[in-house]
Write a structure and sequence with these properties.
- The protein has 348 residues and is mainly β.
- It has 2 domains: 122 residues, Thrombin, subunit H (Beta Barrel), CATH 2.40.10.500; 157 residues, Neuraminidase, CATH 2.120.10.
- The strands form 6 sheets. Strands 1, 6, 7, 8, 9 and 10 form a 6-stranded antiparallel sheet that branches. Strands 2-3-4-5 form a 4-stranded antiparallel sheet.
- The protein is globular.
Length: 348
Amino acid sequence: MGTFRLTIPVVTGACEGDGGPARQARLFHPKAVALDSSGNLYIADSGNHRIRVVWGGTGVIDTFVDLRALSPSLQHPTLVCVMGGRLLVGACDAERRPILLALDLAGAREDGRWKLEGLLHRHRDPRPWQRLVTMAAAPDGTLAAVNGSDWGIYRIDLGAGSATPLLLPPFPAAPDGAATFQRPLSLAYGPRGELYIADPFARAVLVLPPGGTQPRLVAGRARRQPRRADRGEPSLEYPLQLASLGHALYVYDGLAQRLWRLHPDGPRLETCLAPSRIRRISAPCRHPECASMAADERGRLYLPAYSACRVWAVDTRTGTARVFAGRGPKHVDLWEEDVHYLGWDDVD
């Protein structure tokens, strides 16, 4: 695994909308978001190869880093994650090989520039990494990530530069008869260090206890059971994104266009945000448009809308949503006007 260090000068105001209100800025297909301890929201703006930041105190948006300023071959950031004092960025090079970039958030601002210390990690593992699907910061300072070449879940130690498997296919069958993993697409750590895993293809959310090797079903349906919706019970159709907030887990269902609140200790599902007019999707896409969502201490969830070039803010206490970043002159009803932007473009 090769590494290099460099100092990165990034000029603010280098992209349309920088230095102004986040809702008036132009985003180019945001794929992931992450929050730091100061309330700053980092956006993986995949279409223009930048990481944008919305400052928590002012709501002003800036270009935090242009990946092409690091290296001309760096492009398309699809993942962001805050871990300690670092911003981890999942991107790729010109040959579409996955790259994990760690940026020091403690950079000093001088003369309108941000000076950051960058550390680039290229995974050279016997099991090749074709795509970094998703990642989540663990309480012990390591990173959990899904390898798109085999859909295995790995623990990445940035200090040692190593990747060790947590769960590898063929995944073990859950003892309660739940469908086994097929393609885990989202990860989130709970308050006790447990790892939650969303697999839309298995229609399930499972949990891996700290140090455990056997996942347990917390939401979803068993392979041979009828749909819970047919029995009048809450049912996950396509759990696509996860976010942990306090002792609750939030699940975005890309097929039902519904945001669920999951209480794992129960476990029980309850609707946090539902479409006012439910619009079904005729055929789910194979690749998710949104890689992650983030939650803050005020009970807000931030969801990137890839096709709409916006980031939505959802108030979990009131069940309302509004445009947080991206060009939008007024508050728009999330579900009636832009319902397909949070899932797939193929909408009935």
